[in-house]
Amino acid sequence: MFVIGLTGGIGTGKTEVAHVLRELGAVVIESDKVAHLSYEPGTTAHREISRQFGNTVLDSSGIVDRTRLDEIVFASLGRRSELESIVWPAVKKWITARLAEEEKRGTETVVIEVPKLYEAGWDGMVHTVWTVEAPEDVVVRRLEKRSGWSESDIKARSDAQMSRQERVAIADRVIENDTTIDELQDRVRKIWETIPGRPGSIPK
């Protein structure tokens, strides 16, 4: 089984790339969605988040309110690190179990979409790392339109990740998302064909 770590800056287009890879036959695991499972009552992470951050981050049903929590963690590096120390181990445990399941099923390719792959130290879980990148002005426009965030909101979230230069320097593949969706999809398909063991692939 071949495992791809898909990362990239916020607003660069990781979700679209993951969508293309899913259509090409890969099993895609979205770490953010897995993380959200830990926000539900009854999980160890939920109990620890409640203890560390208080009931003010819970909604009326007891689930962690991500908007309230984000306001806290993106305003403080210490609090963000505190949250990551709770959530990351829980997510890694879930993903590790899922990879074992896919191995048993005979799945050929799995993509783990992780915004902070290197920061979490999960690059050792994958065979190759692909990073999705886009010009800063394009990212800002996308996020303002999609999320309604201010420039300061966007900067806070961008600053919480490695820089583009750092990711590009250590990733195995760089996917530039600086033109059209069609062009992005074409770039992803071409890289897909280079995966070792695939028909017509180019040996590394």
Strand order of the largest sheet: 2-3-1-4-5
Annotation, overall tally of beta strands: 5
**What proportion strand?**
5-15%
Overall body shape: globular
* Average pLDDT rating: 90
Summarize the biggest pleated sheet: 5 strands, parallel
| N- to C-terminal distance | 17 Å
What is the CATH level 1 assignment? Alpha Beta
- Radius of gyration, in Å, reads 18 Å
Tell me the helix content: 40-55%
Question: Which CATH-level-2 architecture?
Answer: 3-Layer(aba) Sandwich
Structural class: alpha/beta
- How many structural domains in the coordinates? 1
Given the structure, what is the number of helices? 10
Q: What is the quaternary state of this protein?
A: single chain
Unreliable stretches? 199-204
Describe this entry's structure for a reader:
The protein has 204 residues and is of the alpha/beta class. The chain has helices at residues 14-23, 31-37, 44-53, 66-73, 77-105, 117-120, 136-147, 151-159, 164-170, 181-192; strands spanning 2-8, 27-30, 109-113, 128-133, 173-176. The chain has a 5-stranded parallel beta sheet, with helices on both faces. α1 (14-23) crosses α10. The two termini are 17 Å apart.
